[in-house]
Amino acid sequence: MAASAAVALPSRQPIGTAGADQAGRAEETSRMPRYVVLYRFTDSGRKQLKETVHRASEIRELNEAAGFDVLAHYWTQGHYDLVTVVDAPSEEAMMNGLFSIAEAGNVSSETLRAFTDEEMQRIIGPA
After folding, report:
1. What is the CATH number of the domain that holds 49?
2. Which string of DSSP letters, residue by residue, matches 40-97?
3. Residue 6: inside a domain, yes or no?
4. Strand (E) or helix (H) holding 37
5. Residue 5 maps to a domain
6. How many domains does one find in the chain?
């Protein structure tokens, strides 16, 4: 993630439910919640653009050590400057991490909870 704050987060606690599909195969028993995080540089962050790759690398290492799985991180053109896709140990850990990044003051963010087909089917129920 793109900031220079240290992230101290709780241990990994995957979420999910166990079950079986129609063929009797076991479904994924637990999966960490996935998020898409959209970042925009603040005035402070724009003044330090030359450090953005280094900061993102440091934060990625801290987050992975804290149990996050950073699936993708891109610098983008358009309304948002960075996009990150991350699996978090828990919703609480995600909020804690986002607060740490916000406190650094280099980016503002918009966070979207992302759901797989299987998760969405469980949410809406049987077809």
Report:
1. 3.30.70.920
2. EE-HHHHHTGGGHHHHHHHHHHHHHHTT-EEEEEEE-SSS-SEEEEEE-S-HHHHHHH
3. no
4. strand 34-41
5. no
6. 1
Residue type, 106: N
32-62 burial by CB neighbour count: b if 16+ within 10 A, else e? bbbbebbbebbeebeeeeeebeebbebbbeb
Question: Mean pLDDT in each 10-residue stretch from start to end of the chain (127 residues)?
Answer: 40 35 44 96 96 93 93 97 97 94 95 96 90
| Residues 45/107, Cβ–Cβ less than 8 Å | yes
Residue whose structure tokens are 């996050």: 68
- Taking the CA atoms of 48, 34, 38 and 110 in sequence, report the sign of the dihedral they define: negative
Residue-number span of the structural domain to which 104 is assigned: 34-124
Beta-carbon contacts of 91 under 8 Å, excluding residues fewer than 6 positions away, are: 15, 33
Residue 93's closest CA among 5, 53, 30, 33? 33
The confidence score (pLDDT) of residue 30 equals 64
The DSSP code for 18 is: -
Whether residue 10 is contained in a domain is answered as: no
